[in-house]
Amino acid sequence: MRLGYLIREGFRSITTHGFMSFATVAIIVACLIIMGSVSLLAMNIDVLIKDLENQNEIVVFVDESLSDEAAARDLQRNIEAIDNVSSAQFVSRGEAMNNFMSKYDATLMEGIDEDVFRHRFIVHLNDIAYMSQTKTELEAIRGVAKVNAHLDYAKNFVMIRNVVTAVSMVLIVMLVFVSFFIMSNTIKLATFGRREEIAIMKMVGATNSFIRLPFVVEGLALGMMGGAIAFLAEWGLYNLVTNRLVNSAAGTLLNVIPFRNVALEVFVVFMAVGILVGVFGGVNAIRNYLKV
Amino acid sequence: MVLMKNVRKVYESSNTVALDNVSLTIEDGEFVFLVGPSGSGKTTLMKLITGEVRPTSGKVVVNDFDMGTIKRRKLPKMRRTLGVVFQDYRLIENMNVYDNVAFAMRVVGAPNREIRTRVPYILELVGLDGREKRMPGELSGGEQQRVAIARALVNSPRMIVADEPTGNLDPVRSLELMLLLEKINEMGTTVVVVTHEKELVNAFSKRVITIDSGEKTGDSSEGGYYGV
C-alpha cells in the first residue's frame, strides 16, 4: 500500500505542480533536440566525408607477365585479402583503352593496339588514413607492376575528417554539459518551491526514502515524457530539413542518413538522457532539503 | 521526557552563543511553558528537542534518544515520538484537511483502515469535524492551527512541542487553542509550549521555564511569566 501510495504521489505531483512540470519537460525537450541535431549533423558530415574519400581510388596495374586476363583476374583475391581494401574492381586492358578513348580524342589511339594498356584493378579503401600502408601491401603482391595512389589527397581528407570529428566532439561534449546544467537547474528550481513541503515531511518523521521515491517517480515520468516528445520532434525536424536539402539544387550531391537508420539509437539516447536527468536531477535537487 | 544537562549551543557560522549551561528536566505527562523574550534562545531549545540542531556541548535526551549522538537515519524514528506545531501552521497547501492529517500516518506506514478511523476521530477531537474536504487556504488561522495540532496528535506522540502556536491568532482563538492543548495534556501527552505571550501563560497555572540571553533564569512549577 505504501509503495502504491508513493507512486501515486509522484504522478499526482506532476499535475499539482503543473507549470514546473511543463517547464522541466520543455527544457529537457529543447536540450535534447539541440544535442540530437548537432550529433546528427556531425554524423551526416562524417558520411559526406567518407563518400568523398571513397571517390579517392587506388589504381593497381597488373604486370605484363600476366597478360592473360584470367591470370590477371586471379589477383583480385590477393588484393581483397588486404584488411583495408573495401572493394577491388577488375578493368581489362580493352576496357581501359575504351575508357581512355571516351575521355580523350579517339583519333589519338588510331593504329595503337590495346596491349599498350595494362590490366588493372580500381581499389577502394575502408580508411584512407592507411592509404600509404595499403599501397605498400599492394605493391608487395606478386604480379602487381605499379600502384597509383594520391597520398597527398588522402592526407588532406584525413586532416579534414579529423578536424571535423574533433570540432563536433567538442561541440557535443560542451552541449551535453550545458544541457545537463540547464536541465538540472530547471529541476532544482522546480523543487525549490517544495522545500517547505519536504521540511514538513521530515518533521512528522518521514524517512529520506519516503520523501525521495515520489520525486524519483515524478522525475522518471517527466524524463520519459521529455525524451519521447524530443524524439518525435527530432524525427519531424530532421525529415523536414533533409527533405528540403535533398530537393534543393545541392541535394543531388548529398547523401543524407535516413532517420529510420538512426531512429533506434536516437530514441534510446533521448530516453536514457531524459530519465537520467529527470531522476538524478530530482533526487539531487532535494538532497539539501533532506538535511533537516 | 526531556533531559538537558549543561547544554551549550554555539552557531559557528555567526559565532553566536544561543544557549549556555542550560539544565532542565521535563517529565512525561507535564505541561510546560517555555518563555522568554525574542532572541533569548527558546527556538534553539526547541530545535534541540526536535533534532534540527545538535548541542555544541552537554547532554540532551528526548524520549530516550540521545540527541547529541543520534544518527541521522534514526531521526525519523525519534521524530515519530513527537508532534510538532509551528506558529505558521506549515500545512501542505495542495492537500485538504483530511490528507494533511492522514499524511502523517502514511509517513509511519499506517494501514489505510487505521487511517480511515483515526483521522476523523482526531479531527473531531480538535473541533474540525465536517471540515475534512477544505483546503488550508479556505480555513481561518485558528482552524489551520487546529489542523496542525491534529497532524501532530494523530500518531499518538509521547510529546507535543508547539513553537509560538498562538503567534498568529487573536486572544480568543489563542485561549481556545491553549485549552485544546490542555485537554490533550490531560489525556496523557506531554506538552511543551514555546511562547512569549505573558497574558496567556499567566492565565494557566502551569510550570513555566524562563530563558533569557541563552540561560535558564527561572523554573516555577505553577508560576507566571514576569518578564518583559
Mean pLDDT of chain B: 91
Enumerate how many helices of chain B there are, as a single number. Answer: 7
Measure the end-to-end span of chain A. Answer: 27 Å
Using the CA coordinates, give the radius of gyration of chain B. 17 Å
Describe what this molecule looks like in 3D.
Chain A has helices at residues 2-16, 18-54, 69-73, 75-80, 93-103, 131-139, 151-192, 195-203, 208-247, 259-286, and strands at 58-62, 85-91, 120-125, 144-148. Chain A has a 4-stranded antiparallel beta sheet. Chain A has 2 domains: 2-52 and 157-290, no CATH class; 57-149, 2-Layer Sandwich (Alpha-Beta Plaits). Chain A has 10 helices and 4 strands. Chain A is α+β, with helices and mostly antiparallel strands. The mean pLDDT of chain A is 85. Chain B is an alpha/beta fold. Chain B has 2 domains: 1-81 and 157-228, Rossmann fold (3-Layer(aba) Sandwich); 92-155, no CATH class. Chain B is 32% helix and 27% strand. Chain B contains 7 helices and 10 strands. A 6-stranded mixed beta sheet of chain B has the order 6-7-8-3-9-10, sandwiched between helices. In chain B, strands 2-1-4-5 form a 4-stranded antiparallel beta sheet, covered by helices on one side. In chain B, a hairpin with a 2-residue loop joins strand 4 (57-62) and strand 5 (65-66). In chain B, helix 3 crosses helix 4. Chain B is globular. The model of chain B has no long low-confidence stretch (mean pLDDT 91). Classes of the chains: A alpha+beta (292), B alpha/beta (228). The A-B interface holds A 1-2, 5, 16, 196-197, 199-208, 210, 292 and B 50, 52, 73, 75-80, 82, 84, 90-92, 94, 103-104, 106-109, 111-112, 151, 155.
